[in-house]
Amino acid sequence: DDELQTDGNRSGHFRNGDVELPPTNEEVLRIIAAQLAEIGDQLDKEIQERVVNGLVQHFMNENLSNEEITQHMSRVVRELIQAIPSDMEQEKAMLVLAMVLTKKIVNTVPFLLRRVFDTTVNYMNRQFHNYIVDMVSAVKE
C-alpha cells in the first residue's frame, strides 16, 4: 500500500480525491520537508497531552464517520493555531500542526496509523491543496 514517509521522500500519491501536484524534483520536496520539520519541532512542545488524548478518543470511536473525525481535527487545529505566534504564516502553521498531531496520535496509539493517516491526508487535501502547490512552486522559482 502507500507508505508514510517522514524524511521528505515522495513515496506514494495523494489518495482520497487523487489530488495531483505539478511535477517537481526531489530536492524541492526535501527543502520543504526540512522547513516543515523545523517548524514542527517548535510546535510539538505547544501541544498538550490532553489534546492528543482527546483526538485519540475520537479516532477510536467506531461510531464516528471519517467526515466527523476530519471536522473534529480541523476544530482542534483551529484552536491550537490561536497559541501560535502571529509572525508565522497561518496556513503553514496549520499544516504543520496537523502533521504533528498525526505523529503524536500514532506514537500514542500505533494501531490507529491507517485511520489517522487517511484522515490527515483528507484534511490536508481539502484545506491546504492550493497552499501546498503554491509552496512547491515558490521553492522551485
TrEMBL record:
Disordered: where is this region? 1-21
Q: Which residues form a coiled coil?
A: none
Ranges annotated as spanning the membrane: none
One of the GO biological process terms: apoptotic mitochondrial changes
Q: Kindly name one Pfam family recorded for this protein.
A: BID
Keyword Metal-binding attributed: no
Going by the UniProt record, its keywords in alphabetical order are: Apoptosis, Cytoplasm, Membrane, Mitochondrion, Mitochondrion outer membrane
Matching InterPro entries, A to Z?
Bcl-2-like_sf, BID
Q: Quote the cellular component terms of the Gene Ontology held in the record.
A: cytosol; mitochondrial outer membrane
Q: Where in the cell is it found?
A: Cytoplasm; Mitochondrion outer membrane
Classify the source by domain of life. Answer: Eukaryota
* Annotated protein name in UniProt: BH3-interacting domain death agonist
- Naturally occurring in which organism (per UniProt): Agelaius phoeniceus (Red-winged blackbird)
The gene coding this protein: Bid
